[in-house]
Amino acid sequence: MSARAVSRIAGARLLVAAFWAGALWVLGYVAAPAVFSTASGTMAGDIVGSFLHRLAWISFVCAALMLGLVRASGDLDAARKRFLNLLVLAMLACALVMYVGLQPAMAAMREAAGPAGIRASPEWTKFAVMHGVSQLFHLIESVLAAVLLLKSR
């Protein structure tokens, strides 16, 4: 592999890692809090839920790209490739837990709560716990993204 190709792949790794980390950080720590501070609870939940759906797909695409780029990287030794692959898979696991497990269950609870909203529902405590778990997974994925960004160079 030529030096130019190695450099381009390394640059692409860094770009994908930056995009993925940025999407996680902007949604979780800028956009979602801003939406919840300006919109009503139900509407804010709908908007942020839509953002989270898109973020999950961004995570899936970025994970696939990173796995491919790490595999194709001529500048990484086997140990570093293994580390980056495990890091990407851990981030992907976080995204899958949220997208496949937590978000659909929380959406179903919100839907079942009806017009009074989830806070008026007997399911509120369960919803709040699931929301906290979801936030924890987002935090873990965000921290892993910082490590990925630093180690992708």
What does this structure look like?
The protein starts with a helix and ends with a helix. The longest helix has 36 residues. Helix content is 86%, strand content 0%. It is built from four helices and no strands. It is an all-alpha fold.
Q: Tags for this entry?
A:
mainly alpha; 153 residues; elongated; single chain; 4 helices
Outline of the structure:
The chain has helices spanning 3-38, 41-72, 78-113, 124-151. With 153 residues, the chain is mainly α.
The description of the largest β-sheet is: none
Uncertain residue segments: none
Distance between the termini: 18 Å
Q: Strand content of the residues, in percent? A: under 5%
What is the residue-averaged pLDDT?
95
Order of helices and strands: HHHH
Q: How many helical stretches?
A: 4
Task: Map the helices and strands.
Elements: H1 3-38, H2 41-72, H3 78-113, H4 124-151
